[in-house]
Amino acid sequence: METLFMYLKVFAIGGLLCLIAEILIIKTKISSARILVIFLIAGVALEAVGVFQYMKEFAGAGVTVPIIGFGSSLAKGAIEAVKTDGFLGIFSGGIIRTSIGIGAVTVFSYIVALIFNPKSK
């Protein structure tokens, strides 16, 4: 029963984030790309003030899988790298922390591009 409740929380919180993005798309003239950046920066800001950890403990993958979690990872990597490497950690920390995900996206995107052949309308 506890596992089911966890899945429901993850689904509800992830769905809520998608709902917010969908409302922004429908009700405003903000482009999808700008909404993506807003969510990324929201993740960075929530990590910087220390709130994201509590959200992660409550909702798990509901907040870490969407783009808001990527923003949090970038910020967390930069914060950790500044503590060890100094000022240059601002630039390297986020990339180092998210490099596995970026590499996976690059490889899988290439594979999908080889398999599928897009057609222009």
Task: List unreliable stretches of 5+ residues.
Answer: none
Order of helices and strands: HHHHHH
CA gyration radius, whole angstroms = 17 Å
Terminal CA distance = 49 Å
Major sheet attributes: none
Overall outline: globular
Strand content: under 5%
The helix count comes to 6
Give the number of DSSP strands. 0
User: Number of domains in the coordinates?
Assistant: 1
What would you say this structure looks like, in words?
This protein is mainly α and 121 residues long. It has one domain (2-115). It is 84% helix and 0% strand. It has helices spanning 2-27, 32-49, 52-59, 61-64, 67-85, 89-115. The longest helix has 27 residues, at 89-115. It starts with a helix and ends in a 6-residue tail after the last helix. The mean pLDDT is 90.
Question: Any chance you could write out the topology, listing elements then pairs?
Answer:
Elements: H1 2-27, H2 32-49, H3 52-59, H4 61-64, H5 67-85, H6 89-115
Helix pairs in contact: 2-5, 5-6
